[in-house]
Amino acid sequence: MKKILLPIFLISSYAFAQIPAGYYDGTTDLTGYTLKSKVHEIISANNVNWHYSDLPNYYNQTDLDKYYDHGTSNTSFLLDIYSEIPLGPDAYEYTSANLLSGAGAAEGLGYNREHAVPQSTFNSNYPMYSDLHFVIPTDARINNLRSNYPYGIGNSTVHHTFSNTSRIANSAIPNYVYTNRVYEPINEFKGDIARMLLYFGVRYEDKLPSFNYSTNINPAVDRSALDGTAERAFDPAYITMLLQWHQQDPVSQREIDRNNAVYNIQKNRNPFVDNPQWVNTIWTQTPDAIAPQAPLNLNSTQAGAYFTNLTWSSSTSTDVIGYNIYQNGTYLTTTKSNSIIIDHLNPSTSYSFTVRAYDNAYLQSADSNTISISTLATDVNSKDLFVVKYIEGTDNNKAIEIVNKTGHEVDLNNYSIRVQFYNSSSPTPTYYYGNSFELEGKIPNNETFIILNPKATLSCVTNNEADFLTAGDALNFSGTQYVELAYKSSTVDAIGMKAVQNNNANLSLYRKPTVTQPSTTFNSGDWDSYAANYCQNLGVLSTSEDQYVDTEEFKIYPNPVRDYIYVKGSLQKIDEAQILDFSGKLIFTEKKPFKNKENISVGNLQSGNYLLKLDGKIYPFIKK
């Protein structure tokens, strides 16, 4: 996993006048869903995810109304696209301080943080929950009445008309099966909303199939604009409407300024503000009605106790955009590649697999050949990811490091971090989970990744060095709370115990090198405990053999070390051992150090960084 996060700049002015150089590298000559996936890769990397409570303050950078009523950068009033009257005075105005916690009984009483894509779509989880590109300030009353209804074109059955003539009416979206209520914004902002929704479809492409969307429950009454596909994202009729809105209401200076401001805050951009032509490049396609050719030569190239690696020859059809994988005859997952790791299997178990190609019309091929595999009874690898470092420091000094020792690359898309909170104010005090932070991307075998609160000031890791940055609930834990790594809502690894007040306050926990498997039950004996804000070796493999300094001759462990540092290898060859500090000052010398033992005592050393020198070869280590 690349660690190339950019520095965070909290700038109150609109500092950038154009797209950062190189931001969209790799998109030249791409079209269709291939372009969409590449842009997804770009705008999903290196994001800074802030807490939902941070947004009102950031609206002072992203959403001040210097375009209509006030026309000045000195205004403190927010631009609310649900109530703005472009050609006249607004019925009411808000500053960022006028946040209303609930639904307004009438217009003009305060604003809410409105999710252009309803938060129920993604269970209010981060990073979606606080993504400034589609979470905007709007009047609380209109927000409440809009509810989870999609944006759309309304007919003559009007249920509510608002101060700027936006309205809620029954749907009249052409060729769309949905006939229930929609919220129709005024023409001035239809393009803005279309580009927000299309941004969402690109930014969260890999997660779209797992989000909540309605299919055939009751499509005339309850239907999401999302259609459950990763590539297309929206129902074709709905895309047609969004493309029309995009063309009729082109990108404005307000959107350009807002895009730059959001980039300053969360380090990603809305690609359709920067490149409006991409909307048509991606979604204007003419699929054929011919199902693609089946993939061939499905094979398993590797198997363990918990996984298998499938490969196949690509379909010969040119319009194929992905492959559906079937396990024991049931749909399992999708990939754009012609290989995939299937994990979370059971040891000593037989499975059958087939693969089908699908094209940009979502027509499926016939099945590939069927293969059967049997997983091993045991495996030297870990059965899943697990936490190796948990840092619980003062204020926002929170970090978690997770290692992949599974023997294969792991897709992080179904993993999340979540924390259990205690509600002492309810009539019956209860424990509940906060908003989860959902992981993304892939992690190679034998690598770790760091999740960090972006407000942290830890000494050993910066925002640039972390793989994920979130100020959400998952990285706001305290030592009294239960924290877990989850896969599809099932616990994988745990720190602390559920539904109790834990005793890990002001402690940093480092997994012992003898622990090689995740555990759903927390055992304090599996961890070394340090003081609050202790932070060493983040991003360095620190489990089992990978904690050793390894050469062809010797391995030293543990590292960090408390009392004894052990050496493995041809010890009788070593004539002299020396310990030096990092300035080169000699602290300790021992001749024939391993004549009758396999360790060197370091218990008398002060905490810090040292060098172990064995016959001229140098091995750095940390003394706790």
Strand and helix map with partners:
Layout lengths: L31 H13 L3 E2 L5 H8 L48 E5 L19 E5 H7 L7 E8 L5 E5 L9 E4 L5 H14 L32 H13 L4 H14 L4 H4 L3 H6 L12 E8 L4 E6 L6 E8 L2 E6 L3 E4 L7 E10 L11 E4 L11 E7 L5 E7 L5 E2 L3 E9 L6 E4 L3 E2 L3 E2 L3 E6 L15 E3 L12 E5 L2 E6 L11 E5 L15 E5 L17 E2 L3 E4 L6 E6 L6 E6 L4 E6 L7 E3 L6 E7 L2 E7 L1
Parallel strand pairs: 1-22, 21-22
Antiparallel strand pairs: 2-3, 4-5, 5-6, 7-8, 8-11, 9-10, 9-12, 12-13, 14-15, 14-25, 15-21, 16-20, 17-18, 17-19, 17-23, 23-24, 25-26, 27-28, 28-29, 29-32, 30-31, 30-33, 33-34
Helix pairs in contact: 4-5
**Proportion of beta-strand residues:** 25-35%
- How does the overall form come out from the CA principal axes? globular
Low-pLDDT segments, ≥5 res = 1-17, 542-552
Task: Give the terminus-to-terminus CA distance.
Answer: 29 Å
Number of domains: 4
**What's the overall average pLDDT, rounded?**
90
Total helix count?
8
Structural class: alpha+beta
Q: How are the strands of the largest sheet arranged?
A: 1-22-21-15-14-25-26
Radius of gyration: 28 Å
